[in-house]
Amino acid sequence: MAGTVFFSVSMSLDGFIAPESPEDLMGRQWVELHQWLFPLRFTRENLRLGEGGEEGRDNDIARETFERTGASVMGKRMFDAGERMWPEEAPFHTPVFVVTHEKRDPWERPGGTTFHFVNDGIPAALERARSAAGDRDVRVAGGGATIVEHLNAGLVDEFTVALSPVLFGSGVRLFDGVDAGRVALRQVRSESSPRVTHLTYTVRER
């Protein structure tokens, strides 16, 4: 059985993790939000961008997040955006369970990523992800609504926010709709680099 259920996202200082429109993904603000990731050696390796790249704690965190993940869960909105933008060798390299009403056969990509489409809700998707992950962890990849559904259902054990020095003004808020009366947090770690601050929390029911 898998271990921890977690999420790990980049967030702007004003609380947004994505632009409102999927058409704006990969735009200027989104690139600025994730600018800490692009120079890293791990990112270059994972996206097959060639040799080189920066070492250091940011690189370690990106690699550790990838290595602990045995399977992922994501919402349909995130999948739809990613399907257009991910390279042929999608960057997960593990099973991914997409929560959707669409009925679709598994979509296998080169490099070990297979997208499975789950039609009976988040608990079913998470159960399948736990089974697929083995003794590794399950990552709730996003988007924001899917993360909040897991939080409100008491299904998240911990999370890390990479707080980037950028302002969005509008977009998809990370904690929009969270049931703050049920969710309590404990900060367990804070690590800063010149580009970003990594904040890690455990989650418990209030």
From TrEMBL:
<dbReference type="GO" id="GO:0008703">
    <property type="term" value="F:5-amino-6-(5-phosphoribosylamino)uracil reductase activity"/>
</dbReference>
<feature type="domain" description="Bacterial bifunctional deaminase-reductase C-terminal">
    <location>
        <begin position="4"/>
        <end position="197"/>
    </location>
</feature>
<dbReference type="InterPro" id="IPR024072">
    <property type="entry name" value="DHFR-like_dom_sf"/>
</dbReference>
<dbReference type="InterPro" id="IPR050765">
    <property type="entry name" value="Riboflavin_Biosynth_HTPR"/>
</dbReference>
<dbReference type="InterPro" id="IPR002734">
    <property type="entry name" value="RibDG_C"/>
</dbReference>
<dbReference type="GO" id="GO:0009231">
    <property type="term" value="P:riboflavin biosynthetic process"/>
</dbReference>
<dbReference type="Pfam" id="PF01872">
    <property type="entry name" value="RibD_C"/>
</dbReference>
<protein>
    <submittedName>
        <fullName>Deaminase</fullName>
    </submittedName>
</protein>
